[in-house]
Amino acid sequence: MAFSRILVVDDEQLVRWSLRERLSAEGHDVVEAGTAAEGIERAKDDIDLIFLDFKLPDGDGLQVLRKVKERTPDLPVILMTAFSTIESAVEAMKLGAFHYVNKPFNLDEVLLLAEKALETVSLRREVVALRSSQGRDYGFDAIVGASPAMTRVKELLAKVAASPASTVLLTGETGTGKDLAAKAIHYNSSRAARPFVNITASALPEQLLESELFGHERGAFTDARQQKRGLFETADGGTVFLDEIGEMTVGLQSKLLRFLEEKTFKRVGGLADIRVDVRVIAATNRDLEKEVKAGTFREDLFYRLQVMPVVLPSVRERRGDVTLLARFYINRFNGEFRKHVRGLSTAAQELLDHYAWPGNVRELRNAIERAMLLADRELLEPQDFTTLTRTVSATHFKLPAEGVDLEEVERQLVVQALERANNNQTRAAELLGLNRDQVRYRMEKFGLRQT
Ligand SMILES: Nc1ncnc2c1ncn2[C@@H]1O[C@H](COP(=O)(O)OP(=O)(O)OP(=O)(O)O)[C@@H](O)[C@H]1O
Ligand SMILES: [Mg+2]
Fold first, then answer.
1. According to the model, what pLDDT value does residue 132 have?
2. Confidence band (pLDDT; 50, 70, 90) for 50?
3. Could you tell me if 327 and 365 are in contact, meaning their C-beta atoms sit under 8 angstroms apart?
4. Is the CB of 359 within 6 Å of ligand 1?
């Protein structure tokens, strides 16, 4: 236990003395007061805990308690009473006393009670500090971007956070900040003090995902040896972030839809309807509308999610933010790596401004991180961004005088990349500075055979 400042309010000198002896032996700093008025006065001195006598020469302990609680509701007060009546004890607890002890008291017990009170306070302070620091990390300020596209999105996110909307759909390419946006919505909503739970649909096979979400009863399936609460129950009052919703099986999609519409669900193998109040934020980097057409995503679920859609723009749609993001991450990594990088050279700036950023902010962040780990200059240079050099060569493509058929050029490049990568779509994607979904999309668009 850390050393604390404890105030003892009692008109009997002997009581004050014995408490002081014992508490200071434990390393605490003890302040004394002999009257109610003095007690109220001394309670202002940055006190961590008060021992308060019930009967004081100029009033009773309850008056002091009331005054103290008005000013510092979290300050714990232990009331000491010589003739404990139930009423005064009840009254004291109602007024927010931490506890009460009967006089004459056992000093060991009193000490134990003091420790408990001080521990409760420090835990409470810790929780408050933690929550507010989480809030700070996930405030809208943590979402860097001042471009018109990003400003609009931030305004929309703030509105969504404040709204009672029970479902939200976040879409956008990989690395555009969907995770960040989900946390910003939660921590800026009235649900902030309740849990934020996060689950990725693609991470688990269907049956496991179902029992993660909805929980299960004992014996529901072979491995279900015990009853288990699902995430929807755990998050009651808070937010469930369902990432990569596009990967969810159609069977589970209908169970999710039923839950979204009725707000109730059954545990796997259970009969009872369980009602919870959660906001579901779903996210995907896929084009759900296309998945609906392809029959892999339920149309009704799509429309249910579409009630509150937020599209996170790609970096290409907000090029103006590249400099801002780069500066943000240079600052961050200066702190983390104890470096003193001042910024980008003109050539490096040029490179970042024209790069395609298929991995969006995540890629930009990684590029800066890597560059700063390696660089020992004040300004980052293009050669510090070796992973991006593809675009440097891309700048050598010269538009022929007669112009080109861009679609045809694109088609040929995709074909060549697939050939060179032996039809490995991930490797082809790397060659083109795209992600796998983007390559697949183009293969479909150009009618290229999937192998
Ligand atoms: N606007 C932004 N400002 C600052 N950092 C950002 C921003 N957007 C994204 N980031 C950072 O980029 C990284 C990737 O973001 P995030 O995980 O939110 O992307 P995502 O959209 O969920 O991607 P995926 O679809 O791959 O899951 C994280 O480190 C995140 O903090
Ligand atoms: Mg994500």
1. 60
2. very high
3. no
4. no
